[in-house]
């Protein structure tokens, strides 16, 4: 399974696309744990008291898992996983 990481999460992990040892039948949480095992520097950025921090968005197939079965959702072949930190900024037009 592959995670797509954005913003500072990609910088911390050293890449935007990270393969992990998770497969169909595992849960989103299993895939996240596999990511954090191979990239432990992400742990403090992604988790808060052992749970995914409120400000981190976990997406499965482009949908926030908090609204689509949670971290216990079972992965299927072809699922796309992504982690998004809060994003802000941009230029104001003049």
**Which structural category do the helix and sheet elements fall into?**
alpha+beta
Radius of gyration computed on alpha carbons: 13 Å
Distance between the termini: 44 Å
Helix content: 10-25%
Description:
InterPro entries: Beta-grasp_dom_sf, MoaD_arc-typ, Mopterin_synth/thiamin_S_b, SAMP1_3, Sulfur_Carrier/Prot_Modifier, ThiS/MoaD-like. The N and C termini lie far apart (44 Å). The model has no long low-confidence stretch (mean pLDDT 92). The strands form two sheets. A five-stranded mixed beta sheet has the order 2-1-7-5-6. A two-stranded antiparallel ribbon has the order 3-4. The chain has three helices and seven strands; from the N terminus they run βαβααβββββ. The chain is of the alpha+beta class.
Task: Supply the key terms.
94 residues, alpha+beta, five-stranded mixed β-sheet, 3 helices, globular
List the helices and strands and how they pair.
Layout: E1 2-5, H1 8-13, E2 17-19, H2 28-38, H3 43-46, E3 47-48, E4 51-52, E5 57-60, E6 63-64, E7 81-84
Parallel strand pairs: 1-7
Antiparallel strand pairs: 1-2, 3-4, 5-6, 5-7
Organism: Halorubrum saccharovorum DSM 1137
InterPro entries: Beta-grasp_dom_sf (IPR012675), MoaD_arc-typ (IPR010038), Mopterin_synth/thiamin_S_b (IPR016155), SAMP1_3 (IPR054834), Sulfur_Carrier/Prot_Modifier (IPR052045), ThiS/MoaD-like (IPR003749)
Protein name: MoaD family protein
